[in-house]
Design a protein that fits this description.
globular; binds ligand EPS; alpha+beta; 31% helix
Length: 396
């Protein structure tokens, strides 16, 4: 129903996004997109690039008078750093007259953990820059812009999304799955690592400082929480319609994410069924339903279908693969041992990845919502959703 594509390189002119499938009549506020882009740029441990950029998405199609009009929405985020890369990243074989920036040497020593080696082999490139430019997590700015619009659609139907950082390196908060939506949503946008526990936050900052001093990097984990999600999104009827799988794929596709958990996630593997599963009790249901669940270990998904509880997803991020004290590698021009390339990079990007996680969750949930409550215009979507609620709640 809802799909998006991105294009652009980390040090190219711009990132481009096309978001297709939005109903007409959705209000789009450029400031809302800008707020999300600014959140993605923050977080303790980012590198110098974020001081250069001030990401803003220009809307260049699909919106008129502040509303979607049915066509695909096209967005462009210009890279301020482009002026330092016009020579290295020139599109033409000859560097154009007046191009600015250094003419950088080819990258030939792949970084372990990055797409460098696999990408050079796959696309038969001699300069690894051709790989790292598109493999770069800079692309997530384009996703966040698209996700901000998906989140606006969800907000219009009462679904909200937030996130919080649960671990940096070896430091983690306890019982992350019990952190309330309100507590995560109340995190200030200038919070250094987006952790709800002040004491743990200090330890996380110390972990990032220690990594930086050692020429190293650190990963971590974040949880995304969506509330107001109606029961019944997704389906158990076929593998590719299961919403847990679709959400996991969306989060796993974020750069450096190596594992995804839903609800208790991997912790559930060691629990007996009696302690894992969320009992179903009569009465007291929130939001007009006549049942309630005292726990939410399932993270709002049973059988690949939302069950009306908060959707809770945890993503685990490996340490960034550009090390200032490089690991051993080879030089692809000589095939002899050589230290891996050093590119300007971040020491830790977990807080930023959490914002990207919110965006990817919004895109998948909006897609699933439109599958159940499709409409050419937002008025149709609202009417379909209201009629469904009335019918379902009369029975449940
Ligand atoms: C960036 C993410 C990281 C940054 C990048 C901007 O991308 P990568 O996956 O390539 O490490 O390092 O900045 C640079 C490449 C740079 O020139 O400093 C982002 O999220 O915008």
């Amino acid at each position: 129903m809802l799909r998006f594509l991105t294009a652009g390189e980390s040090h190219g002119q711009a990132l481009v996004t096309i978001l297709d499938g939005l109903p007409a009549g959705l209000r789009i506020d450029a400031e809302v997109i800008a707020t999300q882009l600014a959140r993605r740029q923050r977080g303790y441990g980012r590198g110098r690039r974020m001081a250069i950029e001030a990401d803003r998405a220009e809307i260049i199609g699909g919106v008129r008078a502040g509303e979607t009009i049915g066509g695909p929405v096209a967005l462009i985020i210009r890279n301020r750093d482009w002026e330092n890369w016009q020579r290295t990243m020139a599109i033409t074989p000859e560097v154009p007259e007046g191009a600015t920036g250094a003419n950088r040497a080819p990258v030939t020593r792949p970084r372990p953990g990055h797409a460098d080696l696999a990408g050079a082999i796959k696309y038969d490139r001699s300069d690894i820059r051709d790989v790292l430019e598109r493999a770069s997590a800079r692309e997530t700015a384009a996703r966040v812009a698209a996700g901000a619009i998906a989140a606006e659609l969800l907000r219009a139907v009462g679904i909200e999304i937030t996130s919080h950082v649960v671990a940096i390196g070896g430091v983690a908060i306890s019982a992350a799955h019990t952190v309330s939506f309100e507590r995560a949503a109340a995190l200030a946008d200038d919070s250094l690592v987006r952790c709800v526990d002040r004491g743990v936050e200090q330890q996380m900052i110390a972990e990032i400082n220690a990594a930086r001093e050692a020429g190293d990097t650190v990963g971590g984990a974040f949880e995304v929480i969506a509330r107001g999600v109606p029961p019944g999104l997704g389906s158990y009827t076929h593998w590719d319609r299961k919403l847990d799988g679709r959400l996991a794929q969306a989060l796993m596709s974020i750069h450096a994410i190596k594992a995804v958990g839903i609800g208790l996630g991997s912790e559930g593997a060691s629990l007996p069924g009696s302690r894992m599963h969320d009992e179903i009790l009569p009465d007291g249901g929130a939001d007009g339903w006549s049942w309630n669940r005292p726990t939410n270990n399932a993270g709002g998904l049973e059988g690949g279908v939302t069950n009306g509880e908060e959707v809770r997803l945890t993503a685990f991020m490996k340490p960034i693969s550009t090390l200032m004290k490089p690991l051993r590698s080879i030089d692809l021009t000589t095939m002899q041992e050589a230290p891996a390339t050093i590119e300007r990079s971040d020491v830790c990007a977990v807080p930023a990845a959490a914002v990207v996680g919110e965006a990817m969750t919004a895109l998948v949930l909006a897609d699933a919502f439109l599958e159940s409550f499709a409409g050419d215009a937002m008025s149709d979507v609202f009417a379909a959703y209201a009629a469904w609620r009335e019918r379902r709640q009369a029975r449940f």
